[in-house]
Amino acid sequence: MNVFRLVGDLSHLLAIVILLWKIWKTRSCAGISGKSQVLFAMVFTTRYVDLVISFISVYNSVMKIVYILFAYMTVYLIYIKFKATYDSNHDTFRLEFLVVPVGGLAFLVNHDFTPLEILWTFSIYLESIAILPQLFMISKTGEAETITSHYLFALGAYRALYLVNWVYRYYFEGFFDLIAIVAGVVQTILYCDFFYLYITKVLRGKSLSLPA
User: Fold this and answer.
1) In this predicted model, what pLDDT tens digit does every residue of 6-23 receive, in sequence order?
2) From residue 52, how far is each of 20, 65, 121 by CA, in Å?
3) Cα dihedral sign for 185, 188, 193, 195?
């Protein structure tokens, strides 16, 4: 494992921990898109279904378990524990507009037409756009809390670092995964405006807002 993937994994984990900490500390999930979190739970479930049939390393297995548990813990906090604070009026993105096309694409474009490979491909495609309900919600409410902005930045940094990881692996290991790279590029592009606003506003103590 190269340093870019390791730091990317840690950034990903940090993002999830920041989100859980924010919800638990404030006893509120205000400003958090439950729909994005449902999509992330779907991503981890379909990607790591191989956890029960294959073993790569202790690190790999532990991270898979942590991602799955944390994803469902977040969904539980939003939809059950702190349901009264969930802003369903602004979290209105239609998930079927994302899940159905991604499911079809996973069947049509994959490395190998097998159940596990299709599920993995589905998870890669879905992860690249899973943040859209959250960004859509921010654009409707007008702004995001600072801690939510930190969560989004860490999540975006994870994808950007994984792109560097793919470049590293191509040059030093001869490994190239077009599906993962294209999906990573799409996901990183979705964060570009946010990165700019985060650097120019949040880091200077101002509130972050996305254009409606």
Assistant:
1) 999 999 999 999 999 999
2) 26, 11, 18
3) negative
Per-position b or e across 161-172, b if 16+ CB within 10 A of its CB: bbbbbbeebeee
Q: Rounded to whole angstroms, what are the CA distances from 47 to 54, 102, 127?
A: 13, 14, 10
Q: Which two tokens stand for residue 193?
A: 């405006």
Distance between CA atoms of 55 and 64, rounded to whole angstroms? 11
Alpha-carbon distance of 11 to 6, in angstroms, equals 9
Average pLDDT of 51-56?
A: 86
82 closest CA partner among 30, 38, 146, 131: 30
pTM for the full predicted model:
0.92
Largest CA distance in the chain: 51
User: Which tokens hold the place of 162?
Assistant: 């994984």
Stronger pLDDT, 53 or 44, i.e. the higher one: 44
Classified as helix, coil or strand, 144 is strand
- The type of residue at 205 is G
Tell me the CA distances in angstroms from 80 to 14, 21, 76, one per residue in order.
23, 17, 5
